[in-house]
Amino acid sequence: MSALKRHYALIVLATVLLLLPLVLPNNYYYDIVIRMAINAIIVLGLNLLIGFAGQISLGHAGFVGIGAYASAIFPTHFGWHPIFAMLAGAAIASAIAAIVARPIFRLKGHYLAMATLGLGIIIAIVIKNEGTYTGGPDGMPVVALGLMGFEISGEKQWYWVLAATLLFSFWASKNLIDSPFGRALRALHGSEVASQVMGVDIVRYKVAIFVLSAFFASLMGSVTAHYIGFVTPNIADFFHSIELVTMVVIGGMASIYGSLIGAVLLTALPQALSTFEGWETVAFGSILMLCMIFMPKGLVPTLAARFGRNDGEPR
Amino acid sequence: MALLEVDNLSKAFGGVKAVQNVSFAVDRGLVYSVIGPNGAGKTTLFNLITGIYTPSDGDIRLNGQSIAGTAPHALALKGMARTFQNLQICMNMTALENVMVGAHLQLDRNLVKAMLRLPSIARRDKQLKDEARELMCFVGLEQYANLGASSMPYGALKRLEIARALAAKPQILFLDEPAAGLNSKETAEIDELVRKVADNDVTVVLVEHDMKMVMNISDRILVLDYGKKLTEGTAKEVRENPDVIAAYLGSNV
User: Fold this and answer.
1) Do domains B1-79+172-178+203-253 and B80-169 have the same CATH topology?
2) Which among A44, A198, A210 is the top mutation candidate for probing chain B, defined by the most B β-carbons within 10 Å of its own β-carbon?
3) What is the pLDDT of residues B167-202, one digit of tens each?
4) Is the CB of residue B108 less than 8 Å from the CB of residue A183?
5) Which residues does A131 contact at the CB level (< 8 Å), separation at least 6?
6) Measuring CA to CA, which residue among A127, A85, A124 is closest to residue A223?
7) What is the pLDDT of residue A292?
8) Among B40, B232, B152, B94, which Cα is nearest to A313's?
């Protein structure tokens, strides 16, 4: 692969992110794009786990919740600097992921789905019930995120922070899947026994990618908390987990571009459908169903196959 | 000392004794075949040696070191590679990437370095691609290199498994029915390929039903029947053994 071809998509994405502010008319649209970027970064990590390594997690919102509440609780109750709180949240999420991953990844298919579902629900319950620290179901306010005396505030500043983060995540994900580590992940998806025989310690790789995706989910939870300035337990609940998995599936499993498209579409769709008033959930559900019936592999892989790019190369 | 020594190896699945007290040794540089009627325990024997199953009893030694019950990924580190009777190709990857996975243990698997694509990773990957292409040429698949594995024909996938196993630079290679389901021309090609592999100082252990191929290329042959060792010897010795003839054709002949 030539250098230009390798970086082609990255350049396109960077250009789009650079030019986007020229066409965004007001803060409402900035807000939507920021939420798209946050979701896209989480979904990139989740797609490495679900699409590339072939494992499932129905509890990822739990990790988003850990990050969000770490950023809310540590600065408010203990006076920590928000950056340390964010890193502590990511460390806690990673540690929990690492501890539960070993027993959980002995399971496969439905059983693995149930175990991760349970994990997510437990985290959500803890957040809801530990009212002294978390504010319970009412949530709690979050201090602003400051970096070396400079405070990030307003949609425009957040936009640039998230554009840069998204660009980095996209680049790193692409690098990862085209590396020895990434090929081992995809190989264990293709055939566990063959990858073992080739020397891949499959449990270690499943644990590693689960921890990595939890780490990024937690960081984005912290970012969401600081951006909105308030957290509620909804951020960790089951429906948020399902929403994230849906973005992976609709965009396309094992597709880096699919992660972006899935996050963008599913963030925009509820806004676009708001004109349907009471019927928006019905319209939303119908669109998802039709997508899955006619494009079971997800948008990007289906369209790529239609337009003749069936060389099996990851996208 | 033999490269591989199998000592009184047994495996029971509940009441079924799939392999019973089998002992044999494979010398370095040989082509060693395991034959026997269907259900004789040949694949079970392979799965025991390559760590997929844990033996119920007995010992396996590679270079004099006991490896019974060692996990498959740890055995790969000791220079063992194998192919599968029912294809185990990663259909979600290209043919070339499948071969590249074979070299897994020779590469830097660091996660952070991979995400940042440090120059050392990029350089080694480029080199690896060339090595993988060379291996695909070696097994005669050069025209498929950039194709998705899922769009390759069955016969080519059989050889792709061999290329992937060779990418691991094994001392000893286990081939589980490499010619199963192939026509006579393709079988002859596999025959030639196995010879070429053995000439490159890789010890080959083979399970195969194609008798012509087995008799042709094997230095020594082990015959299994109902999980037990029937006999072992050169092609000529095995062919003339009355027990072997009885096992294959029925005892009343």
Assistant:
1) yes
2) A198
3) 999 999 999 999 999 999 999 999 999 999 999 999
4) no
5) none
6) A85
7) 84
8) B94
What span, in angstroms and rounded, lies between the C-alpha atoms of B23 and B21? 6
Q: Please give the CATH architecture assigned to the domain spanning B1-79+172-178+203-253.
A: 3-Layer(aba) Sandwich (3.40)
3-state secondary structure A104-149: HCCCCHHHHHHHHHHHHHHHHHHHHHCHHHHCHHHCEECCCCEECC
What's phi and psi for A296, nearest 5 deg? Answer: -60, -20
Summarised one tens digit per residue, pLDDT across range A261-289 is 999 999 999 888 888 878 888 888 888 88
B200 burial (CB, 10 Å; 0-12 / 13-18 / 19+) is exposed
3-class secondary-structure state, position B68: coil
The A-side interface with B (CB below 8 A) comprises 172-173, 175-176, 178-184, 186-187, 189-191, 193-202, 208, 212, 254, 310-313
Domain boundary assignment for chain A? 24-239
Q: pTM of the prediction?
A: 0.92
Q: Is the pLDDT assigned to residue A308 strictly greater than 70?
A: no
CATH H superfamily, domain B80-169: P-loop containing nucleotide triphosphate hydrolases (3.40.50.300)
Residue A312: the pLDDT is: 47
Partner A, chain B 138-197, Cβ-Cβ below 8 Å: 146-151, 164, 168
Q: What ipTM was reported for this prediction?
A: 0.91
